[in-house]
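quick one, 675 residues, struct below
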Amino acid sequence: MRSLRPLYYLLLLIGAAIAAADPWSTDCPGDANYTRGGVFEANLDALLSFLPASASAASGFAEKATGVAPDEAYGLAQCRADVSASECRACLNASVRDVATKCPGQKKSTLSYYTCLLRHSNVSFFGVADMSWQPHLCNRDNATQPELFKMQLGALMNNLSSRAASSPRLFAADTVDLTPFTKIYGMSQCTRDLAGDDCNRCLSVAVSYIPKFCDGREGGRVDTRSCSIRYELYRFYNAQAAEAAMSPLPPPPPAVNGSDQSGPTGRAGNDDATAKIALFVSIPVAVVLLVLLTVALYLYSEDGTDMGTSESLLYDLSTLRAATDNFSEENKLGEGGFGPVYKGTMQDGQDIAVKRLSKTSQQGQVELKNEVVLVAKLKHKNLVRLLGCCIQEDEKLLVYEYLCNKSLDKIIFDPARRQELTWEQRYRIMQGIGRGLLYLHEDSRLTIIHRDLKASNILLDPDMTPKISDFGLAKLFSVDASFGNTSHIAGTYGYMAPEYALHGIFSAKSDVYSYGVLVLEIIAGRRNNFSQYPGTNGEDLLTTVWRHWSRGSVSGLLDGCSADGLQPSEMLRCVHVGLLCVQEDAHLRPGMAAVVVMLNSRSITLPVPTPPAYVVSGRAGALGRSTTPEAQAPVGAVRGPYVNDPSVSDMEPRCIDGREWDWKIRHRRPNLSSL
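---
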């Protein structure tokens, strides 16, 4: 048997070489042919002769246009970021040979290989995400734990999409544990002509096709002309090379002027060698000095009052006074725990929002510095952008981008304005907040717990895109930490997780709790407090939602929203996800990666939620607000234990007349042996 092993490995290598020699997918649109021997063919030949060498010598990517219109040829070549330069060159050389036989006489073609991609056209496609072509391959074997596999796979691929979009090579590869002995390996990559947002959008579309093409399969691949994803239960990429590919790109080599070369023994050769040595020595030294300087400035601001160490973040007080008309009441946008916020207009016409620390505010310079240090390092479309700060005289000011639709609470809790908010907008706001929170918890280089997520801290841009703001209470975690503890409880009642409100324990799961409350508020259009809303009997929101859920009727929760575009199944799923997020046991709450997957995928079966932390059962089978003195505590204080029902209900949506809908409730006995 041992003597057969070399032959077995040789057959594997031969099989891999044969597979790499042919494109696994070819697209040759027949709507544009070129004339043999014409100008376009000459331009295309010149283009194809340039791309393989250029791409393999330039970190695996090259794009070029040759000739002039109307015979201009555009081309792009890219290799998978984990393959070597020689593998890249070999794959692209094969693609140039294949394009003549696979797509003869075609002005447009796309050839996709396991390790490279070649694309050309007679019109420019650079910088445009093209998802109109979706070739796919699927493993023949089905996953043995399909529900767990789908959830873990969705979390992995969404994470990789975000990471690839923000990496220098638009590439990411990683793993997620399926069982203690099995991992799912995943990879995402975009063509490097795309912007980060377009890359993320392309990869999200590719990920959304997994349930359609490869539902429940152990492995699969989905490509478009602009991006590709792949996942398997085995490592199909070079892990070490992939890790290096996700690191910042090295500086380009110094230019060499061939006319000044005088040979290895000449003076010019010695000068070049000396210059190279000096360059390679000076760059690391400069980097070390820059890091030391940054750390020194940060430490200096830690124990002093110097918050203006970065000139790009420093505003002059007189400039901000002029922009806000000396902080006039007419320009006041609102007021929070930090202090009032004013609209300002700079001399160049740029609108800004200026947050001014109140003299009576309990928040001080520590919170101000915390916000500057954290927000300046974070960049995401669902996080508010900090422009700078100012500390002069007795003023402490933060300057942000101005968002014309102000904060979410101004809309969803206003009986008149919330009617303007369609279900589609509410759904997109929930998704955007989820993506922003996922970025804070997992996808940024920092691990951040917000600790004060609420409707008034969600700002809306002109397109109603949500942006998380107010990081004064946020906590920065080390990579290996999962929770923290504090004796200083700060936040907002109604959004606080019970473990934080009672014991000061905070983690990503306490942010998940706040997110769940926010989701239910967006759906219901009311605050999570005790208010005399019609039909609520003075209950807090969580109790009301749980009561509707338990009775199988949540259609009445959506308040003041136009029925146009309402998707009952989406609403049901959002209520379900919200209830999963506000469960009392933090360990039962899903992480934000799983939450984002649950909101975006209809193919995943969601677990049955346990009652929310603040819902009390006065007696078995009767859920509602307790009448005990403990229950009269403010929202945010746990009001005693609840009694579990003797059965568990699985709930399924059922449409009635396309508009009205309720639930079919299927009872089952719980496993009492586990109690």
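Residues 183 and 470 are 37 Å apart (CA to CA).
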